[in-house]
Amino acid sequence: MDLEYLLQLILNGLFVGSFYGLVALGYSMVYGIIKLLNFAHGDIYMLGAFSGYTLLTIGAGVIGGQASIIVLVVIMLIAMVLTGTIGLILERVAYRPLRSAPRLSVLITAVGASFALEYGIAVSFGPNPRVYPVGLGNESFTIFGARLTYAQLAMMLIAVALMVGLDQIVRRTRSGRAMRAISQDPKACLLMGINVDSVISRTFFVGSALAGAAGVMSGAYYGKIDFLMGFIIGLKAFTAAVIGGIGNLRGAVLGAIVLGLLESFGTAWLGSEWRDVFAFGFLILFLTVRPTGLLGERVTERV
Amino acid sequence: MSTDRTNRPEQPNASATNRTAPDAVDASAFVNAVDNRGDTKVALAGSGLAPGKPRKVSPVSRLISHPWFGLVIVALAVALPFIDSRAYTIRISTDALIFVMLAVGLNIVVGYCGLLDLGYAAFFAIGAYTSGVLTTTFGWPVIATIPCVVVAAVIGGLLIGGPTLRLRSDYLAIVTLGFGEIVRITANNLEFTGGPNGVFGIPDFGDFGLRADIATYWIVTVVVALAVLASARLGRGRLGRAWRFVREDEDAAEAMGIHTYKVKFAAYVTGAIFGGLAGVLFAVHQTAISPPSFNFLYSALILMAVVLGGMGSTPGVVVGAVIIALLPELLRGVENWRYFVFGVLLIVLMIFRPQGIWPHRVGETPAKVRRKPMREDDVEVVP
Amino acid sequence: MTAPARIRTGSGEKASWLLEVDAMTVAFGGVTAVDGLTFVVNEGEVLSVIGPNGAGKTSAFNCITGFYKPTGGRVRLDGTDITGMRPARIAAMGVARTFQNLRLFGELSVLDNVRAGMHVRIKQSAFDAILHTPRYHRSEQEATDEANRWLDFVGSRGNRYNEVRNLPYGEQRRVEIARALAREPRMLLLDEPAAGLNHNEKEQLLDLLRRISDLGTAVVLIEHDMGLVMQVSERIVVLNYGKEIADGTPTQIRSNPAVIEAYLGAGDDVEEEAEKIAGLSDDQVFGQGEGEQA
């Protein structure tokens, strides 16, 4: 294995990892705050792709066939607001009424939400894959012999910008402080006069918006979207969140990068048909060895 | 905890005593009040009990839990080929019965023990493939594959349950989801499982001089009836009670000396065996199996049957499974709408009727329990 | 054994130690909830553990029953080291407990709740249950009879065949105690059994505690109700800030300056409690319930 090939694998891994990271962040945020595994999160990513698709189709006449990065970013921001709102509504309608219900009920609700979103899209857009009306250029450059397209580079930069932005929100703003506080002790927060419901809503908004951004980017990059596209990436994002330590945001990004790299190397080693088996097998192995994740703290869940 | 302290009725003679001394200082009363309020307002998702409203048992629920009802259904199922022996009727009835067995098996995991398994089709696949490969490639008779199917299902259960049952229950949900994918993709990629084409030409149990599909139908009927009976009886015994204890409150169960990990494991592995055996029936019935039959959608449909019928209620789950299995036959061509409605229905059920449509009857029938009232001083249990 | 010499046993004739807690420490992150706690429980005695809120009482309970792993020190049951064992094993060895906030199996019947305590003793395999063997019928019948006996023992009057969560709060408390008793424990740990009970129910609890003690079961009690504690306990251990500050008979504890200091110094809301400890006369403490009602 020569060095250029190795570098190419690393770049591929980082690129895929940045997608996983954006979705994993939402997973991890929601889990961190209300200990809910939002199965529908992968489908929010799918909704992002479809919102982008719809917006681009509407605006196709204005934009023309070849979208610039700036147009794509604008579309992405609108799609983020849309998916964020959908996430917020989802929490309001499906999860909030069950805040104090048994965990099993909540998990089943999340499965139901995932189903409803997937087949809701299948009903309204048809079950066949859709082709994104715009494509991104294929121009590429080489660094040390590895090939990277400008589109890939741009997307990785956008992903990094969003992640840094989220990190700043969570660490610097009042909302972020409230989120961290709720993840520590929701009861105490209620007593301290924090509007817990609104903070949870905001968390769903932000997490869903990030997934939506990833959806638009993947639609534009891969060119094809379908209503089940969120299923596997939801699982992968969860894997990433677990590897990093679920509930830990920097961990989620780290886990996503690790997973991206693992997949990249695993694919090179075993062939792409084994990629998903490799990833989920690794998840099971990882849970056996270190269930708290790379950056997670020991969780004592007791009386 | 949602035990509402305001529910506590005043003792009738409390006012009569009318003490002047203040009730003993209960420094924790304020904290408790806050705790209670806090729990209902901002509890973490899934940390409470369901609200304590007394359940009314619906007449349908009462009817289908009656022992006679089961006998009538079995009799009807056995008599079906005499009533309508069209190949189509026999085929969809066999499908529905196999689906009942899957639902009853998943009910052990989800309904009795409260563990969410989202990859239950994986065990179904393991059973079907083990049986299919052994019969076609190695020429075994179907009956002889059953021990291997059980072993394979148990190994699958150990691999997934081992690491994840120690963790929070939600990890199990998503790991089983991943496991379902692993099994399906593996079957799709491997050579000896036939790749995307799957395994075909699986022999049946033998026709015993009858029409082949009817012979299979009757064998399936008997196996499924026994499985339903076994799962119902398991649920009422010592192990079944332990499953329910774990579902209700793991800590309290531990405090009573119940090894919760082992108990959960037993549920998971029992469910795996049910799934594996259903897979054998499926392989024999279909004579050909391929990976797409075992996707997540299928696992979700089984779960839907369990939730719809009423988690933990065997009769309810059986009815739920029959409905879910036969519905597509009635609603041909609108699959996507159907799944959309399923998704919405799951949410609506969990919010408004988490116990399902025909819930488990909690009440024991006092008539069956011989009660010997004893005076307090009769208790001679010396620890 | 490393039983410390400073332990003053309330009732001298009972020599055998059932439980030995030796320098037990529990820390959560930076907070030390229990700090070098040492005490013993004698066979069959009634011991109360008291102290202001946050003194580490429940943490100590959770350590003894295996729900927390102590960060330091040992716990021995009848000479056997049980430190860090699984709660189920400790329970199977004869330690039963109740929880501060009721932890019943809400959706199960009252009888099933009590049967939980008998789980480790019911002789029945999964195959017995599937095949409905005579052994299955026998063991189920025995379990039901015994559950009924324990419910009678605690004086439960509610419907036993329906969901336990439909019972009134006081009844649920009783069922929880019946469930723990059904474990046939050598030692019963009760975490604030009187919390939320009215005066009458407290009187009944007092009577129940005495009858449990008569069975020969050691009872360890965490309780804020000083009246109850003083009446029922043979010995009292006082905790503050995770440390033991006193150990002795009710009379000794009442006059112990460290205890009064702890309660008075802890803040306004517990002052009353301290006055109660200090102020109760012997008659009040040891007198019967009727005396108090006069």
Provide keyphrases for this structure.
heterotrimer; A: 303 residues; mainly alpha; two-stranded antiparallel ribbon; 74% helix; disordered C terminus; B: 383 residues; ABC transporter involved in vitamin B12 uptake, BtuC; 15 helices; 2 strands; 64% helix
Q: What is the class of the domain at 91-353 in chain B in the CATH system?
A: Mainly Alpha
**What is the approximate shape of chain C?**
globular
Distance between the termini of chain C: 49 Å
Give the oligomeric state: heterotrimer
Give a description of the structure.
The complex is a heterotrimer of chains A (303), B (383) and C (294). With 303 residues, chain A is mostly helical. Helices cover 74% and strands 4% of the residues of chain A. Chain A has a two-stranded antiparallel ribbon with strand order 1-4. In chain A, strands 2-3 form a two-stranded antiparallel ribbon. In chain A, helix 10 (229-244) packs parallel to helix 12. The model of chain B is unreliable at 1-54 and 367-383 (pLDDT under 50). Chain B is 64% helix and 1% strand. Chain C is α/β, with parallel strands linked by helices and 294 residues long. In chain C, a hairpin with a 2-residue loop joins strand 9 (235-240) and strand 10. The N and C termini of chain C lie far apart (49 Å). Residues 1-14 and 281-294 of chain C have low confidence and may be disordered. Chains in contact: A-B, A-C, B-C. Chains B and C meet through helix 2, helix 9, helix 10 and helix 11 of B and helix 2, helix 3, helix 4, helix 5 and helix 6 of C.
